[in-house]
Structures are given as structure tokens and as C-alpha cells.
Amino acid sequence: MKNLVFLFLFVFCQSTVFAQQDPIQLNDSAMSLYKNDPQKAVLILEKALQISEKNKKEFQIAQSKNNLGIVYRDLGDFEKAKQLSSEALLTNDSILKASAYNNIGVVNRNMAKYDEALRYYLKALDIYQAKQMKSEIATTFNSIGLVYSYNGINTKAIEYHLKAKAIFETIENKKGISEVYNNIAIIYANDGDLEQALDYFKYSLKIEETLDDKKGIAESVNNVGAVFYYMNEIDSALVYFRKSLAIEKSIGDMAGISASYNNLANVLIENGRLKETKTYIDSAMYFAENSKIAVDIEVALDNYSRYYEAKNDTKTALNYYKEMVVFRDSLLNIATNEKIAELEIEYQTEKKEKEILSQRADLAEQNLSLNEKNTQLLGLGVLAAVLTLLGYLFYSQQRLKNRQLQKENELKDALVKIETQNRLQEQRLRISRDLHDNIGAQLTFIISSLDNLKYGFKIPEKLSNKLKNISEFTTTTIYELRDTIWAMNKNAITLEDLQSRISNFIDKADLATENIKFEFNSNISDIDRFKLSSLQGMNLYRIIQEAINNSIKYSKAKHITIDFNCNDQQIKVDVTDDGKGFVLEHTQLGNGINNMKKRTQEIKAELIILSKLNQGTTITITV
Question: Which intervals hold domain Histidine kinase/HSP90-like ATPase (predicted)?
């Protein structure tokens, strides 16, 4: 009972102290300790928010919400962090708004939404540059470098990291320098220069230890462990990973905890120490799903697959591998890099426009000064005429220089756009080569292995049929992979390309089916003039492919006709069969039709399905 009373008095006294304190002081106190004790920081900030809302202080409310968003971000609760900082954007204070933009950018980066992350970073950067806030400018440059690093654009990433480093060194910001070295080390590690990466990580760790920043220490320790792992020094890697996990647990950082569990599991799997591995993977998945950390969820799924493979449970391993591929594909949006490049161009263009406006303002001031001089010189006779002539010549020369400068800027912008397009094309080609050389070869190996099993061993008929189904599924996957590579390698797809692709598909379908006649009609002249984006072309091809497959599988048709029509406004494709038809309202739609609808929505097209019993079916796609 005495203990309970003492606890009540302690809480009461503490609440009284909080109530008497200024919310701004509470915010400052919380942000000074949140790196080492984030849970306590949350309590203080929530109290500051309550006091601010009670007093209806708009700035203090926004400040408390944004600081809470920063702390929840470090705790790995990204949805809550994003919500709080978004609410803080209602403030009229530009510096607080920039901080909120920056925090939302960090959250989006951790959730693999890289284009959104860059958008918010650039908004924050505009404000910081206008206010000439060097530390914040450097921090934002460092964050932008991370976005480029995560998307494999290392040259651009290092450029931004070095910009940040130069500013941090001028203002002697040790924490900032540590983060820059840490980020550059990651790039070296990814490029295979492990010795260089280890030196940078250790230097970063030394700075974090002098600062006594537990979060920074945990991240640097984890990175040192990762380099030891890649250098095949397994015992050293395990020591550092366990040390990092202990620190992350002490500060309650769910994102760091899930990453550390994944690292430990990975090392144990590769070294055949499976006894405690499953517990580590389960823990990693639990924390990653709770904090919605996309990268750690993907790694945990991969660890599950490799764990069951090591235990010779190939069925479970394959299921987890498929789940990981589906999850990765949902994140790997090829358009992301294009959006990032577009944002970079927009940002650079905006800077150029500001420079041009500044030059115009200077020119206007010069013109005003010139007019005043001309007015004074009008009464001086011949001398005035001479000076007027000289002024006119100066003005003409200045205008000519400005025109040349404007043309040079336009040429530079055009060169930047061309360079960006070339890099994007190189990225597409690299990805398509990786898909073809790695995944394509692996799928081909699977087919070959299955064939060897069938012909090399006496296999029961049921198992033989199962192997045949797997082989057919893998063959279909190869064809779909080739279609995807075909679309990726093109900036634009002409109708001639699309029709050739569909014609090839129909020829294969004709060979594979009996008692069905196929007819392909097109009334389009000047066909090269019509072009689709790679996304539009691929989706339209998949929709037509699915429509033909459905007719072959379910309609019992004798004739299937594909008609292409086009005018200046739209492309129209009809897939018609004379099969048994169906009543759309009384039929449960399968995955095929649902996928067709999703694809039409994605390219803003229209899908119409007309069918009557015993009268066939027509599917119309209008783009």
C-alpha cells in the first residue's frame, strides 16, 4: 500500500511539474533526449501537446505533433509518424513546415515510396535554401543522396552526399559528417569495395560513440557487422549484429530490431546453424509488419525460403519464395526511377527560372538607371546625343548577351533531359538483361531439371503429371518474362509492334488448339504513326491475350476473331468468339476478367463485355 501511495504522489508531482512548464521547453527537453530514450520523449511531447491544445496555441500544437512524428519515425511506427507531421503542415511557420516535409520524406523513403520521398525533400530544401539554414540544407542533401542510392543511381547519390559533407565540415557538425561517411560506405559496400566500406563505417562508429548517440551507434555497429559478414568473418559479424540488436531493443526502435533479427538469421542460415534461426526470422517479420518496413518484410520472406530450403522442405521454401517475388514486384515499380528523374528536372528547371527572373530584375534596374541618365542628358546638346547613342549601344549589347544566356540555359536544360533519358534507357536495358540472364536462365534450368527427372527415373503417374504442370507453368512464365523484357526495352510501342506480338501469339494458339479457327483483322493505314507508352502497350497486349485464352478455355468456340480499329482519338480492339456464351449478371467473375479490368483502369481505358447464351461473346477494349 505504501508503494502505491508513493507511486501516486510521484505521478501527481510529475504531472504538476509538466503543467507548470512551457510547451516549447517541453519540446526542447524531449528532442534533446529522444535518441537515447524515445519512450520518455513521447510522454513529454504528448503532455506538451495537451497543454498547447488546451491553450489553443496553433504553433505549439504543430511543433508538438511534428516532434512526435519524428520520434515515432525513429521508433518504426511510420504510419503514425506520417500522420502527425502531415497535420503539422497546417502551420504558417515556414521553418516548422520544412521540418515536417523532411520527416514525411524520411518516412516515405523507409516505406520504399522513393518518388514521394524526393518530392517532400525538395519542398523542404526550397525553404531551407531561402532561409540559408546550412545544417538543414546539408541534412536534406544527404537524404536526397539516400534516395538515389536506394535506386542504384550511385553517381548522383555520391554527388549529393559530398555536397552535404562540405557544408557539415564548414559548420563542424560531427553528427552530420558521421551520417555522410556512413551513407558513402554503404555505396562502397554495394560496389564490392569492402575494405574501404569498413574504414568508413568504423570512422562513423567512432564519431557516434563520442556523441553517445545510441541510435547512431546501433546503426554503425550493424553496418560494421554487415561488412564482416560480406568479408566472410562470420564470428565477428554475429558479435556486431547481436550488439546492434541489444542497443535497438534498449531504445525500442522496431525498424532497427527487425533489421538486426534478419541479419542474424541470414548469417545462421548460410552457416547451417538452423536451430535458433526460425525464432529470429519470426521476430524479424513481427517487428517489420508492425512498423510496415517494406525492405525488412522482403528480407524476412527470403530468409524463410532459404531456411526451409536448408531443411530440405522444398515445398514450403517455394511457397515463401513466390510470396517474396509477389511482394517485391508490388514494390519494384519501374516508373519510380522515371518519376525521380522528372522531379530532379523540375527542381533544376525551377532554379533556372529563378535565376532568369533575377537576371530580368537586374536588367530592369539597369534600364531604369539608363532612362534617368538619358533624361538628365537631354538638355546638354551634342554631348547628350553622343551619350544617348552610347547608352543605346550598351543596351543592345546587354540584350544580345541576355538572349545568348537564355539560349545557353535552354541548351543546358535540353542536354540534362537527354542525359536523364539515356540513363533511364541504360537502367531499363540493365534490368532487362538481369531478368533475361538470371531469372530466364534459372527458369530454363528448372524446366531442364524437371525433364531429366521424368526421363531419368521411374516416377508414379500422379507425380509425373505434377512435374508436367510445373514445367508448363515455368514455360508460361518464361514467355511472360520475354513479353515484359520486350516492353521494357522500348520507350514507346507502335501499333505495328503490338499487332506483330498479337499475331505471333495467335499463331502459337492456333498450333496448340484443334477445331478452332483464328482470324486477325486490321483496317489501320499509316500504322507507324500510332504509338503507345510501354505501360499502355504491355497492358493492352495482356488484356487481349487474356481475352483469347478465356475464349479457348471456356467458350467451346469454333471461330475466334480479333479486330483492330483506330482513329485520331482512340484505338479499339474487339475479341469475338461464336462459343456458348454466358449471362454476365449470373456468372462469378474469375481472376482473368478481374485482371483485365484492373489493367484497363491502370491505362485509363474502357472494357466492355457482351455475351449471350449460345450466341458467343465479344470483349471490346478502347484506349
Answer: 539-622
